[in-house]
Specification:
Length: 93
């Protein structure tokens, strides 16, 4: 349903006919780590995330999975070498 509280006009999974079903009945404002993200909207009540109702929870363990301002670094997976097979290959040559 479309939010009728702090993010008016935005589609929200927590909005019901009885009102906002999120903890406390309203979304939480963004935190400092969210600054610069493209998923922030401003309303008369403050600045909120369009994706998550509690942005602080998404940043508690690591970076937010939908943050547009954070560069993701992919680690190249090094190929594991089986030492037994490597020794057999070395004996063949």
């Amino acid at each position: 349903m479309v939010c009728q509280t702090v993010k008016a006009g935005i589609e929200c999974a927590f909005m019901t006919k009885k009102g906002c079903g999120f903890n406390g009945g309203t979304c939480n404002a963004i935190i400092d780590k969210c600054e610069g993200c493209g998923k922030i909207i401003e309303s008369s009540f403050g600045r909120f995330c369009t994706v998550y109702p509690d942005p602080a929870a998404k940043w508690s363990h690591s970076s937010c999975p939908t943050a547009t301002h954070v560069k993701r670094v992919k680690e190249e997976a090094s190929q594991k070498i089986n030492p037994l097979k490597a020794s057999k290959r070395a004996q063949k040559h």
